[in-house]
Design brief:
The structure is a homodimer. Chain A is an alpha+beta fold. The first copy, chain A, has two domains: about 60 residues, Arc Repressor Mutant, subunit A (Orthogonal Bundle), CATH 1.10.10; about 170 residues, GAF domain (Beta-Lactamase), CATH 3.30.450.40. In chain A, about 45% of the residues lie in helices and about 20% in strands. Chain A has a six-stranded antiparallel beta sheet. A three-stranded antiparallel beta sheet of chain A has the order 1-3-2. In chain A, a hairpin with a 5-residue loop joins strand 8 and strand 9. Chain A is globular. Chains A, B: Keywords: DNA-binding, Transcription, Transcription regulation. Chains A, B: InterPro entries: GAF-like_dom_sf, HTH_MetabolicPath_Reg, Tscrpt_reg_IclR_C, Tscrpt_reg_IclR_N, WH-like_DNA-bd_sf, WH_DNA-bd_sf. Chains A, B: It holds the Pfam family HTH_IclR.
Chain lengths: ~250, ~250
């Protein structure tokens, strides 16, 4: 097949998804596009090590040991650990949804989400991905991304989620300039009409934007302006905890 | 070498640890006990896929994509997701350390920890491991583990952490019986003299114990009995959310 064993191992791991966290061997073989015998051999080794686990019904799922190794990713739990006290505070003050996200490729990846029981229901999930142009955290991350990524996103079709989604490159370009100028992104009903997100950048040791923080509240009854100071303050707090230069510029 | 490529890939991943989350290629090669050329080839493929990332100083670390795959582990974030609202409540009520842990092999693995700013400092870490006999969550998990594991732990040397650590098999056997009888484990100064842990079992769909929950408070100034009802109630709440049969037995 000309493909390395490492590539096959990674394809087995990539066969699992949030929609399909448990897979029978035949499904796994089909999704990984590998022969059944190859899949069986790889799965046996991965299960022995603990990268996969076998459920009682015989299906396979991602194992605790792989979760542990993943937890060592500095851009995953490491960042989350520094941010957590500030996320907690923000959650206690707002009782809404509080999110922490990073840029990966041309998408947002959600590292953490705290949701109050009475908070507006939202579609994001820890470890889940959403596009940059339609989310508050995405606008923040895109506004501070390198020019190449910005041009790439502006040149590609911008998927419409609601009547309010920013789908024109010129509107998006202006929105990004606003984010850089004000230090905050407000995404009102762009991914779901009922939610409004207020997001701000989290900076690292060299002042570079390493993550974005947001509060997601009900669009109808919330005044976005009321959340701007608290979101910016929390984002600055995390930046300081990460060793960002002080004063943290907007 | 007679070893499969899959085993080598897994050894590269296992070379990372909480103490050493970033490794230069030579360190990685040494810790994985693989030749430098082999390590280099594997690391290149793992980095291309996103399982590893290269830091600015050239060192390697666990990548965001592996964190995402790990986040699919049903025993990791899946369990955590169901537990989170109850952990939040427990944290708000106590303002101390709240922990969720599962059994893996003969150890406790911590899935989640929420710590108040003023809470007593503790040694656990998300994704970290501790022995069963010296922690509150460990006593709960061991008390409900199969007889084989119990005998294995009782037969092995029990490491002493403090003057209060349970190190005798007879004392441990009685402690486990108490946990089963009372539905709660109290571990007072066993891993560090300054902390006291109150832990209770979380049950799954068939009533089996799938995790343990604890509150860790300062040993000197806390009355463990004050925490028993709230910890048990939170553990039952999570059990119900996981579909445990109701009424949840002790």
């Amino acid at each position: 097949m000309g493909e390395t064993v490492t590539a096959r191992v990674l394809r087995v791991l990539a066969a699992f998804s949030a929609d399909r966290p448990e897979l029978a061997l035949t499904e796994l073989s089909r999704r990984a596009e590998l022969p059944l015998t190859t899949t069986h051999r790889l799965v046996r080794e991965l299960t022995q090590w603990g990268a996969l686990e076998r459920a009682e019904d015989g299906r396979y799922r991602v194992g605790l040991r792989l979760w542990e190794v993943g937890a060592l990713a500095p851009r995953g739990l490491g960042l989350r650990e520094s941010a957590m006290p500030f996320l907690e505070d923000l959650y206690e003050v707002t009782k809404q949804n509080v999110q922490l996200a990073v840029l990966d490729g041309a998408e947002v990846v959600y590292l953490e989400r705290l949701s109050g029981r009475g908070a507006v229901k939202i579609i994001t999930r820890i470890g889940g991905r959403l596009p940059l142009h339609a989310t508050g955290v995405g606008l923040v991350l895109l506004a501070h991304a390198d020019a190449e990524l910005q041009e790439q996103v502006l040149a590609a079709p911008l998927k419409r989620y609601t009547a309010k989604t920013i789908c024109g490159p010129d509107v998006l370009r202006r929105a990004l300039a606003d984010v850089r100028r004000t230090g905050v992104a407000i995404s009102d009903g762009q991914i779901e009409l009922i939610t409004l997100s207020v997001a701000a950048p989290v900076r690292g040791r060299r002042g570079e934007v390493v993550a974005a923080l947001s509060v997601v509240v009900p669009a109808e009854t919330s005044d976005a302006r009321a959340y701007v100071p608290v979101v910016r303050a929390a984002a600055r707090g995390i930046s300081r905890a990460l060793g960002a230069p002080d004063p943290v510029s907007r």
